[in-house]
């Protein structure tokens, strides 16, 4: 694959490019925000969809054994996890799955823990359903993030918590939780009878030095008190096909979750989405290896460039995802001022860290799943803006 290829996405209805005017009030900036890639999906996926389209009939679509087996085989080959086909529940997306889980396993007023800074919908799927959001912020020490397990234990000891929503790997900080961290988390939740809903949408986007461990594969205890939310959307750049695979080993938890889907008449699968996902899981492994190598180079370029030319800014080195969590607190600006500075002075459209909740103020999230030339241009723009900022500081 030629990941250097510049593909014009304007006028395709894509959020990232066509949504710039609506979201940022301008089209005069590089969109490096929402988490999808500017790369073509794997050839096998495109070919499978073309073949399906040529058939010409797109009626109601069942969940075939071939599709289920493609997921089972992928999980075994890529993550060493033996998944049974009956554990699979299909949903239009991971965020809808989180929403259904909150509705199915908690009641209005119940307490749900999340660990910010974290993907913004974690906040809304709890609050929008009238549940109480309990925050257990990540620890940030010496430039490294970790779960604050002591604080979590205190929360669980003193409050009636029904559910914890885990982000694994973590968006936006890029952590891949270790076996020890996950074992400790499961132990705490087991002692307090807390259900864990694990968003593992970035599980396949892990770099060489780290290994993603599916939460339910940690232990029998983890398997029996977890809902694992997976999807091919981030991995193979098919988010617009609205396909996710929710893996629920425990039969009673699975039955309760399925009832929530049935209540809202959700559960049918997209004809094109299932075709794309099956092809991706069956033949997309080599493409994924190639894209991970390319993403790693983009990440290294940004980190090295910033260290050399813009040392005031600190950039975390993610263990997973194609998202860089960048510390702009050196500017001494409010979150809104920081975002405006980057948009108007650097002409960069990034995600404002404050949207990720506590601990996000002063940070910005940059998506580097794009051609290297786009990343190079982004660094030039940022460098120029910061050079001007330094001059302004000297003249104050």
TrEMBL record:
It is an enzyme of class 4 (lyase). InterPro entries: Aminotransferase_I/II_large, C-S_lyase_PatB-like, Class-II_PLP-Dep_Aminotrans, PyrdxlP-dep_Trfase, PyrdxlP-dep_Trfase_major, PyrdxlP-dep_Trfase_small. Its cofactor is pyridoxal 5'-phosphate. Keywords: Lyase, Pyridoxal phosphate. Residues 36-382 form the Aminotransferase class I/classII large domain. GO terms for molecular function: cysteine-S-conjugate beta-lyase activity; pyridoxal phosphate binding. It comes from the Bacteria. Its EC number is 4.4.1.13. The keyword Lyase applies. Belongs to the class-II pyridoxal-phosphate-dependent aminotransferase family. MalY/PatB cystathionine beta-lyase subfamily. This is cysteine-S-conjugate beta-lyase.
């Amino acid at each position: 694959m030629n990941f250097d290829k510049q593909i014009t996405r304007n006028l395709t209805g894509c959020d990232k490019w066509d949504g710039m005017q609506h979201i940022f009030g301008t089209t005069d900036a590089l969109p490096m925000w929402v988490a999808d890639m500017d790369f073509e999906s794997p050839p096998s996926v495109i070919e499978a969809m073309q073949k399906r389209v040529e058939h010409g009939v797109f009626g109601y679509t069942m969940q075939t054994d071939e599709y289920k087996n493609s997921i089972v085989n992928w999980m075994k080959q890529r993550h060493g996890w033996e998944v049974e086909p009956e554990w699979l529940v299909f949903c239009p997306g991971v965020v809808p799955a989180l929403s259904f889980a909150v509705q199915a396993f908690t009641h209005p007023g119940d307490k749900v823990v999340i660990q910010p800074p974290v993907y913004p919908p974690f906040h809304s799927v709890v609050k929008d359903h009238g549940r109480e959001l309990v925050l257990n912020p990540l620890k940030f020490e010496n430039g490294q993030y970790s779960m604050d397990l002591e604080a979590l234990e205190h929360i669980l000891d003193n409050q009636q918590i029904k559910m914890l929503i885990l982000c694994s790997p973590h968006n936006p900080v890029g952590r891949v939780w270790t076996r020890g961290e996950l074992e400790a988390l499961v132990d705490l939740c087991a002692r307090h009878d807390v259900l864990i809903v694990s968003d593992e949408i970035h599980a396949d986007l892990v770099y060489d030095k780290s290994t993603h461990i599916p939460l339910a594969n940690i232990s029998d205890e983890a398997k029996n008190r977890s809902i694992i939310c997976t999807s091919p959307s981030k991995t193979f750049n098919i988010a617009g096909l609205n396909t996710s695979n929710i893996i629920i080993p425990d039969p009673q938890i699975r039955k309760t979750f399925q009832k929530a889907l049935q209540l809202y008449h959700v559960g049918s699968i997209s004809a094109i989405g299932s075709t794309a996902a099956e092809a991706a899981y069956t033949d997309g492994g080599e493409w994924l290896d190639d894209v991970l190598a390319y993403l790693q180079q983009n990440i290294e370029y940004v980190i090295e460039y910033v260290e050399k030319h813009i040392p005031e800014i600190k950039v975390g080195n993610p263990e997973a995802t194609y998202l860089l969590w960048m510390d702009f607190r050196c500017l001494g600006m409010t979150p809104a001022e920081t975002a405006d500075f980057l948009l108007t002075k650097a002409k960069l459209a990034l995600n404002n860290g404050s949207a990720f909740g506590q601990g996000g103020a002063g940070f910005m999230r940059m998506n580097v799943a794009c051609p290297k030339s786009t990343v190079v241009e982004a660094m030039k723009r940022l460098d120029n803006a910061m050079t001007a900022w330094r001059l302004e500081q000297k003249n104050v």
